[in-house]
Write a structure and sequence with these properties.
The protein is α/β, with parallel strands linked by helices. The protein folds into two domains: about 280 residues, Aldehyde Dehydrogenase, Chain A, domain 1 (3-Layer(aba) Sandwich), CATH 3.40.605.10; about 190 residues, Aldehyde Dehydrogenase, Chain A, domain 2 (3-Layer(aba) Sandwich), CATH 3.40.309. Strands 16-17-18-15-14-19-20 form a seven-stranded mixed β-sheet, sandwiched between helices. Strands 11-10-9-12-13-21 form a six-stranded mixed β-sheet, sandwiched between helices. The protein has a three-stranded antiparallel β-sheet with strand order 7-8-22, with no helix packed on it. α5 links the parallel β10 and β11. Bound molecules: nicotinamide-adenine-dinucleotide (NAD). The site of nicotinamide-adenine-dinucleotide has 28 residues, from α6 and α7.
Amino acid sequence: MSAATASHELVSELIIGDQVLAAGSADPLPHYYAATGEVNGQAAMAGTDQVEAAIAAAKAALPVWEALGPVERRERLRRLADVIERWGDRFESISSAETGIPRQGFIWRLRLSCEWIRTYAGYADKVHGDITASSDDGTIEYVRREPYGVVGIIITWNSPLLSLCMKIPAALAAGNTVVVKPSELTPFTPTLFGKACLEAGIPAGVVNIVSGGAEAGEYITTHRDVEKISFTGGLRTAAAMMRSGAALIKPFCFELGGKSAYMVFPDADLDLAATLVSKEMSNAGQSCKFGSRLFVHDAVYTAFRDRLLPKIAAVRVGDPEDEHTTMGPLITSAAQQRVLSFIENARDSGYGTLALGGGKPSVEARFADGYFVEPTIFEDVEPGSPLGQDEIFGPVFGMIRFTDEATMIEQVNATPFGLANYVHTRDLRTAHRVCAQVKSGTVYVNDANRRNPGAPFGGFRRSGIGSEGGREGLLEFLRTKTVGIA
Ligand code: NAD
């Protein structure tokens, strides 16, 4: 199932064992180019029969993957990074065409995706257990770390290649095989990724790609042969998955949403903080770590605002193919409508004062039906209001003035989420004090939105369970077995 884009073909296929299938057994879904609203391809949709076949293929491939051994698994994963790098132009173009995110925003994502693969290639020959303290009766005990077996990978659409690379290489390095269900909104990058796996010599059946909808996801979640699920997506979906996996006590790793905060102290480098906030626009606010709440100390509030507003006003919204574009459209027409009505409600109910944006931007005529929303800033936002609490998943910031550090930290922590936060100060004591008190899986000082493959990334509270990245990300895909020899 394919259609031409500006520079590469958008191909959606299913990869099940050694078969590359051009059509799914469920009805295909039209794919809309977010920048124009025009149909630019068809997503092949797997039916449950095909998901069943993918799970069977993953199960059959387990001994094959195991027999290769850790060193060879490492080498195949390294080759995968090489193939993806070689096909980089295709990945950038296809990922941009299927999400509407500016193409230039995929250059660093491609590099980072390859870094994630290489990091986990390096872990493939470093899976080791422990020896426990000898017991009094002389029993020898040791702990093996073993793969789960078949792992279900269910992901969302907002960074298709990186999402795949943050999960699959770690699962494979641990010795598992995978059934991947990408979002129905972004089936094209995963198709190419599946082909890159085959090209790299990863045996057929080790990575199976079944694009599909909620039904396909649910089938994976409730299947007895799928021993663990790693999921990136929304809170409501995660809760539904927990319910449907409950009867099988299915283990989950969940990477969910957030309501991240910048905390700008009086001694902060205001230019740096404002620049980092403006760079958050590259995904049009559709990033889980998006720092949508800007807590700014009263002493520098006006100075920071005066730096930030021109930078946000200068964000170039428009053609994702244009190298000067810094923000594209939202993913779907429904997302655009949702964000615009959120803004309208916030304006009408006075949770904050609109300082910038708030509507549809003016774009070239050919993008008039695209799903664009202006970069938007509200000021003097009430921390407890929907603007201060809800994950908007659009280009909307709320500025919140603070004077007292303790009250501000309380407010930062007073959302259901706990994914990431960003402290801006030149004082190390402030930095350490605040980092210790905020409740989130990551906190960066004088920085923003990073994805270091060597460090665990995950959420507190309703932002998730478990981690991706670093050794913790590997351990997500391993379970322990204690062996005792009397
Ligand atoms: P979603 O939850 O609607 O969909 C995610 C995936 O789940 C899709 O593949 C979908 O088809 C599948 N799915 C839907 N219903 C299912 C069911 N009942 N059983 C199994 N699978 C099902 O995704 P969304 O809400 O559009 O994604 C955006 C969310 O993802 C945001 O909240 C964002 O913050 C979060 N996210 C988190 C991270 C992270 O690393 N923490 C990264 C990116 C996005």
